[in-house]
């Protein structure tokens, strides 16, 4: 199979991309710009969500450690009272 034969067969992915590209040309510039701005806003908002989840995870971890030590120390104090 020569080089010309290999390039003649197109992958389904390439055909799909070409079809999508043709559909994008049918859209107006305003619609394309709005879609791009929406995608960028979605990317930037995920940073806030990730930061919030990180802070929440750290807070939960600290509360679990606190509860563990609180319960261990409180049972030791009860045993000393007996």
Automatic annotation (TrEMBL):
<dbReference type="Pfam" id="PF15168">
    <property type="entry name" value="TRIQK"/>
</dbReference>
<comment type="similarity">
    <text>Belongs to the TRIQK family.</text>
</comment>
<dbReference type="InterPro" id="IPR024842">
    <property type="entry name" value="TRIQK"/>
</dbReference>
<keyword id="KW-0812">Transmembrane</keyword>
<keyword id="KW-0256">Endoplasmic reticulum</keyword>
<dbReference type="GO" id="GO:0005789">
    <property type="term" value="C:endoplasmic reticulum membrane"/>
</dbReference>
<protein>
    <recommendedName>
        <fullName>Triple QxxK/R motif-containing protein</fullName>
    </recommendedName>
</protein>
<keyword id="KW-0472">Membrane</keyword>
<feature type="transmembrane region" description="Helical">
    <location>
        <begin position="51"/>
        <end position="71"/>
    </location>
</feature>
<keyword id="KW-1133">Transmembrane helix</keyword>
């Amino acid at each position: 199979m020569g080089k010309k034969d290999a390039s003649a067969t197109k992958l389904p992915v390439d055909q799909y991309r070409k079809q999508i590209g043709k559909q994008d040309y049918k859209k107006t510039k305003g619609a394309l710009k709005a879609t791009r701005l929406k995608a960028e806003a979605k990317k930037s908002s995920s940073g806030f969500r990730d930061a919030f989840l990180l802070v929440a995870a750290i807070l939960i971890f600290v509360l679990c450690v606190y509860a563990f030590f609180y319960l261990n120390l409180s049972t030791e104090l009860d045993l000393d009272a007996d």
